[in-house]
Amino acid sequence: MARPRLLPDNFTLSLLAVVILASFLPAQGQTAVAFGWITNLAIGLLFFLHGAKLSSSAIISGMTHWRLHLLVFSCTFIMFPLLGLALKPILSPLVGTELYLGILFLCALPATVQSAIAFTSLARGNIPAAVCSAATSSLLGIFLTPLLVMLLMGAQVQESSTMDAISKIVVQLLLPFIAGQIARHWIGGWVTRNKAWLKYVDQGSILLVVYSAFSNAVVEGIWQQVPLPQLAGLVVACCVLLALALVITDFAGRRLGFNTADRITILFAGSKKSLATGVPMAQVLFTGGTIGMLILPLMLFHQIQLMVCAVLAQRYADRAEETIPVVP
After folding, report:
1. How many domains does the chain have?
2. Beta-carbon neighbour count of residue 103 at 10 Å?
3. For 162-190, how does the pLDDT look when each residue is reduced to its tens digit (9 = 90+)?
4. Is residue 106 part of a domain?
5. How far, in Å, CA of 319 to CA of 44, rounded?
6. Which residues, other chains included, contact 178 with Cβ-Cβ below 8 Å and sequence gap of 6+?
7. CATH number, domain at 139?
8. How far apart are CA 226 and CA 155, in angstroms?
9. pTM
C-alpha cells in the first residue's frame, strides 16, 4: 500500500510520539537524572558519527567558491537574526514572549547538513558547494550560535559567560566531531557501508534530547503555558519566517549573478535551520523547563521547511535545462 503523500515522514511521527509520551509519562527524579547522562552520551555519539561520515575531500572541493559560501553564511548568521528581531512587533504578540525567544534561538542556529545536501542534489544544484557550506555552517555554529544567543536572548541563557557557553559546546559537540574525523581513517568505510541504519543513531539521539527536554517542560507546566491559539500562531510565525528566508535567498542569488546550480545551493543551504544541531545546543545553553518552550519553534520550523523545500526541489528537478523556476 502506497504511503499517503500528506502523511509526515517516520521521524516526524516519532518526534510527535515522543512529545506525547513525555506529556503523559515525563521522566522525573532519578529517572530524569539517568536520562540526562544517557542523553549527553548520545549527543557525543551523534557528533562523533557526523565527524566520521563527513569527507574532508568533499569540503575542500567546494571551498574555492567563496562568494557562494559568504552569502550562505550571511543568510544563516546575519539575515535570520535580523529577521527575528525585525518581526518582534508581530511575532511576540502572536506567540507570546517565551515562544518568541524560541524563534530567536531558531534564528541563531546553523544550517542543516543532510537535508540541505539532499534537496540540492534532487534539484540538480551545486552539490560540492552545498556539502562545503552546510558542513562549515555547522562548525561555525559551534562558536557563532552561543554568541548570537547571548546577543539576542541575553539573560535567558544559563548563568555563565559567553566563553563558558562556547567551551561547553566545544567539549560536548566539537571534540566528538574531531574525534570522528580522526577515526574516519579507520572506520570511514564501515560508516559509509552502514549509513542506512546508522541514521537511526542520529535520530535516536535527537529523540532522547526531545524526550528529556519535554519531560522537564511538562513537569514545569508547558501545556498550561501554551494554549492552542499560541500554537496556531507559532505555525503561522514559522511559515512567515521561512517564506521570507526563501524569497530573500532567491533574490540575493539572482541579484548577485549566480548561475542556476549555485542559486539552488544558496536557496536550500541559506534558508534552513538544523534540528540535529539545535536540540543538543539547547541542552547545553539552557536549563530545566525552558528548553521545551525554546525548541518547540525549531521542531515546527524543521517540519515545515522539509515539506516546503521538498516541493521546491521537485520543481527544480522537473525543469528543462534552460528554465529558471521562480520561488513563489
Report:
1. 1
2. 28
3. 566 567 667 777 788 788 888 988 888 88
4. yes
5. 41
6. 51
7. 1.20.1530.20
8. 21
9. 0.75
